[in-house]
Amino acid sequence: MLPLSLLNTAVRHPILVELKNGETYNGHLVNCDPWMNINLREVILTSPDGEKFWRLPECYIRGSSIKYLRVPDEIIDMVKESQHKERRAQTGGAGPSGRGGAPGGRGGNTRGRGR
Amino acid sequence: MSEPLQAYMDKTVQIITNDGKVILGTLKGVDTSVNVVLHGSTERVFSQDEGVEIVPLGLYIIRGDNVGIVGLVDEGVDSGIEWSEVKAQPLGSVRHEGGV
């Protein structure tokens, strides 16, 4: 499982981010990109010494300044599900959200069909 | 790419980070930047006055920039160690000397 797939799956869930300068950001993950740049909402920022706190309505963190992220345990199971869904969408046909491939495109030998 | 680490997948690994932390967990994922996914991870906090403190951390993504060493843990040997009795100086952080 790719670290960034896990992060993608954590969108809309609470996460904790520690930056290289020791600050920690607790908030809901709104969005992330392939560089690990992230958008958080309803954030509590804690100073490196753990003594000062600030509330931020939202913030944007550059990926390269991150040391680590902590995500809820249950997210790891959701990654498997979303990867299955993606694979189904890619092979086409199966499922209601398929990309309108040829009907029955998955039966038997699918290689080379429908393209 | 990070092919050698694929051999450690789903096994217990110990990561020493650039800021001197020792984190153990089950390796669940890694990418070309050596960003790492650890499941059920714990930190071992070393001190000279008390035994090792074990802090549960849970599901972690450690950014590759911050990864110093990834080592495979021999669970047989590791579980035979009474960590609560181990006293050791904590690691410092990575130092970059000389350089440009």
Automatic annotation (TrEMBL), chain A:
Keyword Transmembrane: no
Record's compositionally biased regions (Gly residues): 92-115
PROSITE patterns: SM (PS52002)
Biological processes per GO annotation: mRNA splicing, via spliceosome; nuclear-transcribed mRNA catabolic process
Domain spans labelled Sm: 2-75
Single GO cellular component term: spliceosomal snRNP complex
Keywords tagged on the record: mRNA processing, mRNA splicing, Nucleus, Ribonucleoprotein, RNA-binding, Spliceosome
Recorded GO MF terms: RNA binding
Protein family per UniProt: Belongs to the snRNP Sm proteins family.
Assembly and binders: LSm subunits form a heteromer with a doughnut shape.
Name of protein: LSM complex subunit LSM4
The organism of origin for this protein: Gonapodya prolifera (strain JEL478)
From TrEMBL, chain B:
Molecular function terms from GO: mRNA binding; U2 snRNA binding
Keyword Hydrolase: no
Pfam families listed in its UniProt record: LSM
UniProt key word Nucleus: yes
Annotated Sm domain residues: 1-76
GO cellular component, as recorded: precatalytic spliceosome; U4/U6 x U5 tri-snRNP complex; U5 snRNP; U6 snRNP
Chief site of localization: nucleus
Subcellular location(s) per record: Nucleus
GO BP of this protein: mRNA splicing, via spliceosome
Annotated InterPro entries: Lsm8, LSM_dom_sf, PTHR15588, Sm, Sm_dom_euk/arc
Gene3D superfamilies for this protein: 2.30.30.100
Keywords: mRNA processing, mRNA splicing, Nucleus, Ribonucleoprotein, RNA-binding, Spliceosome
PROSITE patterns reported for this sequence: SM
Ranges annotated as spanning the membrane: none
Subunit structure and binding partners: LSm subunits form a heteromer with a doughnut shape.
Family: Belongs to the snRNP Sm proteins family.
Function comment: Plays role in pre-mRNA splicing as component of the U4/U6-U5 tri-snRNP complex that is involved in spliceosome assembly, and as component of the precatalytic spliceosome (spliceosome B complex). The heptameric LSM2-8 complex binds specifically to the 3'-terminal U-tract of U6 snRNA.
Name of this chain's protein: LSM2-LSM8 complex subunit LSM8
Gene designation: LSM8
